[in-house]
Amino acid sequence: MDEMPGKVYLVGAGPGAPDLLTLRATEILKRADVVFHDALVHPRTLELAARAEKIAVGKRSGRHSTAQKFINKRLVDAARDHKIVVRLKGGDPTLFGRAQEEIDALRAAGIDFEIVPGVTAATAASAELGVSLTRRGFARHVVFVTPRAANGERENDWVASVLAADTAVIYMGAGLADAIGAELIKRGKPKDTPLALVESATLPERRVLRGTLADLPELARKTGAGPAVVLLGEVLKAAFAKPAATEEIEALLKRA
Ligand code: SAH
User: Cα torsion at 159, 38, 27, 6 (round to 10°)?
Assistant: First the structure.
């Protein structure tokens, strides 16, 4: 027991495309002894961890998931047996990824850790749309929110944040589209606020849908089973001109 415990790296895997991984993340994966990964991490990203034992602990809403407390314990235990332990999370590890619970557990156990940031879904989606989330003199305030709250969590007034923001990106909301649309309109968000729904950003099966807040339920019904974010705000108007043409071309190609 006189051996030093290992180190745990909380690594962002990015939004999907394996080449959006950082070089730092790549180097750590190559050296990893064990990798605990989310369900949505791309197989090619996992392949980089050639010498590591790979353990899926991912959560996808509605499906079986490994309880968070158990994941925390496994990270601590793994760091006692291995030098380089990776907790690989989709997007950026510090956004809607329960990273703080893991960090708290590692700190409590006296285990060294390091966070390696990743490309988050919001910026992957703005890239797909070809728009800037901020705009000089016009949109200086961006919020990342989720309407999802676990049982027993304190109340989450995500609506107030969206109403106050110039640009809002809603995570984990596609399945709640009807309620999100209704709630925002009820609380005073204009129905004609430009909106986009981006599913599976950066992956070949990506889908980009545009409309207004009033269209949200209808747009959400057109998405598939991939992860999706909803973006709202005037900056999205700039996403309409060219991509609308792209959609027309895509429709023509489908018919051909
Ligand atoms: N830590 C992640 C977010 C985890 S919560 C990040 O920084 O991106 C999971 C949610 O992220 C999904 O419900 C969806 O809203 C969003 N998401 C993840 N990958 C996505 C992708 N490729 N395209 C669109 N949304 C995505």
Answer: 100
Residues 26 and 89 in one domain: yes
CA of 136 to the centre of ligand 1 (A): 26
Q: Is residue 31 part of a domain?
A: yes
| Phi, psi (rounded to 5 degrees) for 34 | -145, 140
Q: Which residue's alpha carbon is nearest to atom 9 within ligand 1?
A: 172
| Same-domain check for residues 59 and 111 | yes
Give the domain CATH number at 142. Answer: 3.30.950.10
**Which amino acid residue places its CA nearest to atom 25 of ligand 1?**
228
Number of domains making up the chain = 2
Of all atoms in ligand 1, which is nearest to the CA of residue 173?
15
Is 81 catalytic? The answer is: no
pTM higher than 0.85:
yes
Specify whether 98 is located in the same domain as 140: no
d(CA 256, CA 254): 6
**Is 59 marked active-site?**
yes
Q: Across the chain, which distance is largest between two alpha carbons, in Å?
A: 69
- Rounded Cα distance between 148 and 172, Å, is 7
Q: 35 CB under 6 A from ligand 1?
A: no
**Which protein residue's CA is at the shortest distance from atom 19 of ligand 1?**
15
Residue-level pLDDT at 5: 87
* Residue ending a domain, choose from 74, 99, 116: 116
Q: What is the pLDDT of residues 155-204, one digit of tens each?
A: 789 999 999 999 999 999 988 999 999 999 999 999 999 999 999 999 99
